[in-house]
Design a protein that fits this description.
The chain has 11 helices and 13 strands. The chain is α+β, with helices and mostly antiparallel strands. It has one domain: Beta-lactamase (3-Layer(aba) Sandwich), CATH 3.40.710.
Length: about 350
């Protein structure tokens, strides 16, 4: 019931978005160059909010808000440089924290690299890499599920099973034709890790570390927790990944993801059933959206007071990775559950952006 009240609140304020500087005109102000911190180093250039002409009188209110809302780490990158970096008393720049479902974005990027390197194709049946009988569907039904369906939450697998997060065959049942219904279903998502392993003949972790983590100076580890594969890292590592995406897959002078079409598809509407969802990224500025654990279609923007062009990794307990191309900005929030909400998108997004806007505007 709490989550539904939050949804109604978000919908009610959708029309207020233009009052928070979230128009498409922001694209005219994008700076030309980005700074990239060196790999394997704690050096990271900073820029002061004063030099950026932000409203610094509201910074302390932002920090108080972050503390009250159980935030552990908060970073704003402007043009790649650290403009704001705040930690709670029991946290630091070297402390690891789970990304929860915000790490789905790491998986999407890794799938893009695997396709770029010729290991798989999004149109391939996932059975090619998972093997036969990875589910309890018929062989024909199983063959009809493609890698693309796993990336877009449209596999058609039954999300009403007792444990919709586990990937045991008995939990993977047919419900809808692939590509005909969108539902935020963790089990088919998690199978992306096995798809990559089957395609590359390497463990997902080894392939991810080799192709992304180590090339952009991230740290962190994938750790199995029950049925989930969770990523733990520092907030700065999350910020590095956000910066990589802000620069459309290139880290400094090194191209990590050269497939421009994949990147565009990943960060734009992937299917017509949930326009606010790309390849495991949440998208702002769309006319409608669906949310986890719901079959409802809601009208309006996902986060109405955030920039329209923002795309985001959003995880349980309010893990946030915001990428805002029009502002050349990346924002990271790690911490505990802020408002007793369960899923990635939450009413806290609106509250947080209200405070961010008070500093930026």
């Amino acid at each position: 019931m709490f989550y539904k009240r939050i949804l109604f609140f978000l919908l009610a304020v959708t029309t207020l978005a233009t009052f928070f500087g979230c128009s498409d005109d922001d694209t005219d102000t994008k700076p030309v160059e980005l700074y990239f911190p060196p790999n394997n180093s704690s050096i990271w250039e900073t820029v002061s909010p004063e030099d950026l002409k932000w409203n610094t009188s509201n910074l302390q209110s932002l920090y108080t808000f972050l503390d009250e809302k159980k935030t552990k780490a908060f970073i704003i990158l402007q043009d790649g440089k650290i403009a704001v970096e705040w930690y709670s008393d029991d946290f630091s720049s070297t402390t690891n924290h789970t990304w929860n479902s915000a790490a789905k974005t790491l998986t999407a990027f890794t799938v893009g690299i695997a396709q770029q390197e010729g290991f798989l194709d999004l149109d391939d049946s996932s059975q090619l890499y998972l093997g036969e009988n990875w589910s309890s569907m018929t062989d024909t039904q199983e063959k009809n599920v493609t890698v693309w369906h796993h990336l877009t939450m449209t596999t058609g697998l039954d999300y009403t099973v007792p444990d919709s997060s586990c990937t045991d065959p008995e939990d993977l049942l047919y419900k809808n034709e692939p590509g005909t219904f969108w539902y935020y279903h963790n089990a088919p998502y998690t199978l992306n890790h096995s798809i990559i392993a089957g395609a590359t003949n390497k463990s997902f972790t080894a392939y991810f570390n080799e192709t992304i983590r180590d090339r952009i100076g991230m740290q962190g580890s994938w750790i199995p927790v029950g049925c989930f594969h969770l990523y733990f890292s520092t907030a700065r590592s999350m910020a590095r990944f956000g910066l990589l995406n802000l620069n459309k897959g290139t880290w400094g002078d090194e191209v990590i993801l050269s497939d421009e079409n994949f990147f565009k598809d990943m960060t734009n509407t992937s299917q017509n059933m949930n326009k606010a969802y790309g390849y495991l990224w949440w998208l702002n500025g769309k006319e409608s959206f669906r949310l986890p654990s719901s079959e409802e279609l809601y009208t309006g923007n996902l986060i109405p007071n955030a920039p329209y062009d923002m795309y985001a990794g959003l995880g349980k307990d309010d893990q946030k990775l915001y990428v805002i191309p029009s502002k050349n900005m990346v924002i990271v929030r790690m911490g505990d559950n802020a408002n007793d909400s369960v899923f990635g998108p939450s009413g806290f997004d609106y509250e947080l952006w209200e405070m961010i806007n008070s500093v930026l505007n």
